[in-house]
Amino acid sequence: MHRFAYRNGVLHAEDASLEAIASEVGTPFYCYSEATLREHLRAFEEAFAGLDVLIAYSVKANPNLAVIRVLASEGAGADVVSGGELRRALAAGVPAQKIVFSGVGKTREEMALALEEGIYQFNIESGPELDTLNEIAGSRGARAPIAVRINPDIAAGGHEKISTGRAADKFGVAWTRARELYVRAARMAGVEIKGVDIHIGSQISDLAPFRAAFEKVADVVKDLRTDGISIERIDIGGGLGISYGEGRDAPLTDDYAALIREIIAPLGVKIVVEPGRAIVGEAGVLVTRVLYDKENEWRRFLVLDAGMNDLIRPALYGSFHAFAPVRGPIDGASPVVVDIVGPVCESSDVFAKERALPVMRAGDLGVFMTAGAYGAALASQYNSRPLIPEVMVRGGRWAIIRKRPTFEQTIAAEPLPDWL
Ligand code: LLP
User: Fold this and answer.
1) Alpha-carbon gap, residue 340 to 323, rounded angstroms
2) Stretches in the chain below the pLDDT threshold 50
3) Which residue's C-alpha comes closest to atom 16 of ligand 1?
4) How many angstroms is it from 289 CA to the middle of ligand 1?
């Protein structure tokens, strides 16, 4: 569910007209609905009601400070994967005691920062990383709370590039070798074993891989307990898929939670869950303007002012994003088939091929739906296109939550060597 709908033929975010925002902010820009963010977080809270759970929003999906602040105000924690994300989460008001730190390549500086701040948990992805954390915490007389991320060797996820739980992926520690690492960790003075962690991929659109992974985690926990290692938390990662309007339904938060109640809850642990996309995905759209309606011998193209540098998911993963005009289609108007493309000088700068759309002309506004997750987060300045603004809507109010940088600001970070 989301709060983007037509009113009097114009697409609104909650009570704010996207046309009105576009005329002030200029295009392209991302627009988020605050109410949708809150509703999605509450849906998680309700689905897990009665369980001892920490919902640690996965900041990578959308790291905007205002987005994190909204979720923090609903009680969310944060899953972070860098010192930058950790500092953002803290700056947005997430208490350190609700922050988990994941990722295969934490630096010594990042570990020290997280220890100083007193985060809830480090998710450890290898033996060498465990040794490093033990050394850094030990040298400060501290004990770092840890979970080991186990790799369950399960294929899952919406795309080859976002599957993380197969044996050959770089993530985690093979589930068959987890036991020996825990035994080693149990003897370390600088770490304190708290739990087990897993994350198998993203945009997972059926529950079967989750079931298989959770069952493996449950087995590992039982083995560890037999070895006398106490496990009080299980971090089940993120990955719950959403529907992009491509005609495929995603599992519901409630069904996902039911699976966790069935397999994880009986272990009597605190549950950490790290949703990203399921919270922010539907809460954002990318608003863009048609520059040209271009036809050649073979095809008709809609050339937009948004490009792959602003929303790379279609180019990178072949992802589907629904596209719609901001001025609602006139009933009965027959659609045309177009390729929707951006202005970037790459053949991969294509948002959709052969999409049936109502006729749109130069100057018309359109939106890519479901662009709140991994949209702005993955944007770049390729072709020297500045990062685009982000706007948040609350009811009829809206505010810019990321400014469009000026050309001067962009080049100010590029000092010329004194010999030039
Ligand atoms: N926890 C960990 C350890 C992760 O690596 C991720 C995502 C999440 C949680 C959140 O997963 P989510 O609930 O959002 O599926 N750029 C890709 C997705 C990459 C996901 C990376 N890890 C995309 O645009 O589809």
Assistant:
1) 9
2) none
3) 374
4) 29
**DSSP run (H or E) holding 316:** helix 313-317
Q: What is the pLDDT of residue 331?
A: 66
For residue 28, is the peptide bond before it cis, meaning its omega torsion is within 30 degrees of 0?
yes
DSSP 395: T
Within 8 A by CB and 6+ apart from 101, the residues are: 80, 81, 86, 110, 114, 119, 121, 122, 123
Ligand 1 atom 9 nearest Cα:
238
Q: Ligand 1 centroid vs 351 CA: distance in angstroms?
A: 21
Q: What is the value of pTM for the model shown?
A: 0.97
Confidence at residue 374, expressed as pLDDT on a 0 to 100 scale: 98
CA distance 334 to 377: 36
Any idea which residue has 């850094």 for tokens? 136
Q: Determine how many CB atoms are found less than 10 A away from the CB of residue 397.
A: 11
From residue 59, how far is each of 71, 79, 86 by CA, in Å?
10, 6, 9
R_g (Cα) of the chain, nearest Å: 23
Q: Which of 168, 345, 413, 420 is catalytic?
A: 345
- The values of phi and psi at residue 289, to 5°, are -115, 145
For every residue of 164-219, which 3-state class applies, written as one string? Answer: CCCCCCCCCEEHHHHHHHHHHHHCCCCEEEEEEECCCECCECCCHHHHHHHHHHHH
Asked if 328 and 6 touch (Cβ cutoff 8 Å), the reply is yes
Tokens of 164: 């993380």
Residue 31 falls in the annotated catalytic set: no
Token pair listed for 257:
């939670």
What span, in angstroms and rounded, lies between the C-alpha atoms of 57 and 70?
A: 11
d(CA 82, CA 114): 10
